[in-house]
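Thread: quick sanity check before group meeting

JM: Hey all, I'm pulling together slides for Thursday and realized we never actually wrote out the predicted structure for the chain we discussed last week. Dropping the sequence here so it's in one place. If anyone has concerns about the input, flag it before I start.
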Amino acid sequence: MSVIHTIISTFIIQLFGAMLVFIRSGKRRKRFPLWAALAVGGFVGLYFFPNIPRVEWFNFEFLVFFIIATGLMWLCFDEKPIKIVFFGVAAYAMQNFASALFFMIRGFAELPRGYSLGSVFIILTIFPAVYTVAYFLFARKVKAGDILHGSRIPFLIMSIVIVLIVNVLGLFSISEGLGRHNVVLFFRMISCAMALFIQFGLIEKERVLRDKETIAHLFNEAEKHRVAAKDNIEFINIKCHDLKKQISALRQISNQKEREESIDEIEKAVMIFDAIAKTDNKTLDIVLTEKSIQCQKRKIDFSYIADGEALRFMNSVDVFLLLENAIENAIESVMHIVDNEKRIIALNISAKGKMLSIHLENYIEAVPVFDHGLPVTSKEDKQHHGYGLKSIRYIAEKYSGNMEVSVKDDRFILDVLIPIKDVK
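JM (edit): ok, ran it. Output follows.
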C-alpha cells in the first residue's frame, strides 16, 4: 500500500471520530440505530472505494471522502444541511490539525515513514488529545439553534476555501521529499486552527446579535407593560379614593351588624393601598407596587428600601426593565420554597457616593450552575429563557456599570453598580 493510500485509510477513521465530536448534540433521526449502522457501513465501504486520479497538487480522494462522510452524517441526524456542513468542515479542519501535528512530531522523532509502533503510539496520543481540546474549546459550547441563520453565504465561501487550502497543504506535507517540511506542516496547523476559531466566531457573533434582538424585543414589551401597569396603579388609586368615601357613607347605616360587616369588607379591599409604593420615582413606584401585590397574592414577604431619586438619571424604560427582571427572577425562585420563613425577597436601592447600588437577595432551593458568570436557566425552553439577567447586565453596561451575581448561605445575591450621572 502506498503512502497516500495508507494515509487515506487512517484518514477515514480519524474523520469519522472528528465528526462524532461535533455532531454529538445533533437531533437524531427516527430509527437512529439503523441509520447509524448504515453510516458505519458506509465509512467501512470507503476503504474499498476505487482509486481516484489525482492532479499534481490536489488529491480528489480526500475531497470525495469528505463529501461522502458529511452525507453519511446527514443520514443519521435530522438537521439542516448547513449545520451538517458546518460540523463536517469543523471536523475536517480538526482532523487535519491533528494529522499535521502527528507528522511534525514524527519528523522530530526521526521515525521511519509508514506506521511503525512509535508512529501508532503518537497517533493514539495526539488525536484523542486534540479532539478532547477541540471539544471543550468549540463543540461543547454549541447550543441547539445556534447554527448560522444569517451568515450562510460567508460561511459557504469560507468552507470551500478551508477545504481547498487544507487539502493542498495536506498533500504537500505527505508527498515524497516533503514529509518533514515543518514550515508546510506548521502553516497547515495554523490554517486549521484559524478556520475553527473563525467558524465558531461566526456562531458567537450570531448569538450576540440574536441576544440583542431579544433584549430589544424585551424593551418593547417592557414599555407596553410599563404603560399598562401605570394605568392599573391610577385605577387602584381612584378605586381606593372612592372606597374611602363609601366607608364614610356606610357608617350612617343604622343597623349595627350590617354596617360593621360592610365596613370590614371594604377595609379589606382597600388594604391593597398599603402596597402602593411612594419613592418619588413614578417608574420605580409602578414596579414596586405591582410586585408587592404579586408577592401578597403568593404569600411572599417582599421588603424594600428604595431611594427613587438615585434612579433619576436613568431612562424610565431601563429602570422598569432592570427592576422588573430582577424582582421577577427572585419571585420565580422563592415561590417554589415550602418553608414560609424563607419565602423572602429583600431589595435595597441607594446612592453610595457617586454610585447607584441595587442589591437584591432571595433564598434558593438549590445552588445553580453558572456559565460565563450567569446561572444557567432551569426552564425547559433554554433558547428563549434566561434573558432576564442578560438584560440587566446589558442595561448596567449601557450606563458604564456592572452586574454581579453570587450565592451565599443558600441565598442568591444580585448586585448592580452604576455611576450616577448629573441630570441636566
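AS: nice. Confidence is low (pLDDT under 50) at residues 1-8, 176-180, 380-385. Residues 277-424 form a domain with the Heat Shock Protein 90 fold (CATH 3.30.565.10).
JM: adding both to the slides.
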